[in-house]
Structures are given as structure tokens and as C-alpha cells.
Amino acid sequence: MKIIITDSNLGxxxxxxxxxxxxxxxxxxxKQCKTEDDVIxxxxxxxxxxxxxxxxxxxxxxxCTKIKAVSEFGVGVDNIDVAACTERGIIVSNVPxxxxxxxxxxxxxxxxxxxxGIVRLDxxxxxxxxxxxxxxPLQRITKRVFGVISLGRIARATALKxxxxxxxxVGTDVALKPGTTTADGIPVKxxxxxxxESDVVSVHVPLMPATRHLINAETLxxxxxxxxxxxxxxxxxxxxxxxxxxxxxGRIRGAALDVFETEPLPKEHPLxxxxxxxxxxxxxxxxxxxxxxxxxxxxENAAEVLAGRIPxxxxxxxxxx
Length: 321
Prior knowledge:
By secondary structure, the protein is an alpha/beta fold. It has helices spanning 14-22, 36-43, 58-63, 82-87, 100-115, 118-126, 153-164, 191-197, 217-221, 240-248, 288-306, and strands at 2-5, 26-27, 48-51, 69-72, 91-93, 145-149, 168-172, 200-203, 228-231, 254-257, 277-279. 41% of the residues are buried.
């Protein structure tokens, strides 16, 4: 049995190889595939693919006919044609719960840094300005509403942590009825209500056709003028050009982004010149504990399929029928 890792920016593969050896499987030296043809060239005789960003498309699967499993390094599977996999009886797996504590911590940290003007104050004092002019006016946190878009595990954890420091929290999710309350006490509202009522809008939806550019010129116009946007989900959920325009016009007060439509973000990108934006390099997932899970569990998921068992996380569970 052969597992191919199409691409990874997570360092050496010693942990991945350690897991594979338990199953009697060897992993080749790391590949850094960028295109469909790259993937086809390395995976033609593979039994399973483990991928991070490389495209695993219908074309790839038509050429790599031995594939029984496609496993993702991470939560999002937008680089995998899940429908094509399901048609071919290929199990798709991911690691949906490896970093929910880290991402929710990161989202709250970004929100607080925006709301308290931490970066602007730091920049001001380094330039010799010891006043509060860079951040006036600030509101007390307990006066502000923290809204989450999606009420999945990470979003709920973020909302509850936000409530713990004093924010009033609300949320929206297409699977939940507005006017209800989640089991952990988060009021469920429509998307428009969350946008118009929240002082902090924290985005947590997965990337799919329905959520691409969910945050756009129209939705940004519905936010409060003094509100801030936090995105720790996927870069393409936010229309970057529309966000830049809203920030430059003062339509919203600020944004904190851990993910981008283009990664890595070029240093000459317009976002880098805005002083009301906080940028981090897709770091929300990271702790040493979560990194170990991220590196080992995708290989374990793929190896379990090759061993004839159901892996821990199946993204297309309908295939099991």
C-alpha cells in the first residue's frame, strides 16, 4: 500500500512516517504539488492521498484510479472534489477538531486587540506619541456585541470565550432557526441581524460556493460604522477588495485577518499599508499540541481506510451506506 503526501508546509515528515510505519506503510519523500498535473505525476500508483493545498480534482481521480482515500491536513476540504470522490467510492477525511481551542483563542485575541487598539497604541508609542489619540474613542467591552457567523464548534467556543470577558454574544447559522437559543445560551439571529447589531463580527464558516465572498460590499454595508471584522475561517469568505474599500472609507473601524485569498500574503499587498488592520500568517491553528495532531491524524485516517476500517473522521459519510 502506498500513501502519497502531495504537499505540506508543516516541516519534516518524521511524525507522519512514524504513524505510517505502524500500519506497515512507507511514505515517500515530501512532494510540493501545485497543479493537477503535479498531483497526477506523483499519485498515479498511490492507494491514498494526503493533501494540504494541492488540487485533488475529478481529473486527478480519473488518472489515479487506485485511490481509495483522500485525507486532508486540516479542516477545510475546498481543494478536494468531494462529489467526485463520493461517486468513486473514495472516503474523504479531515481533522475537524484538532485546533478548535487554538482558533477560538486566536479569534478572541484578534477581536480584543482591535477593540482595545493594541496595535495602534504600540505603533504610536514607538513613534513617540504617548497619547491615546490613535484609538479614541474606545467603548467598554461590556457595552459591545460579539457576533459569530456560523455556530459550529469553533464559533461556539469563540462566542463563549467572548462572553467570558464581558461581550454580549449573538450568532447565526443556516442550520439553526432565528429566534431560538443554542444549548450553551447563544441567541440565534439572521445574518442581517448579526451584521447590523454586532460591534465585532467574527467569521467561522467553511469555504464552499455558498460562502465564497459571503462578506462583500453589500454585507459590509450592513455592519455598524464602528464595528470590526475578524476572519479566522478561510480567506475567500471575504471579498478582499470590498473590505479594503470599506476600511479606507471608514465604513467599518477595522479588521483582523488570519487568512487571505492569496497566501502567503505579498508584502506589497494593499492590506499591509492599512493601520486599521491586524494581520497574522494563518497562525490561528498553531500550538505544539495541535500541530502534532495536524501532522499525524490525516495519515492515520488514510491508513485506516487502507486497512479496511472506517477512519475517525469521514467528511462524506453518505459513502458508508
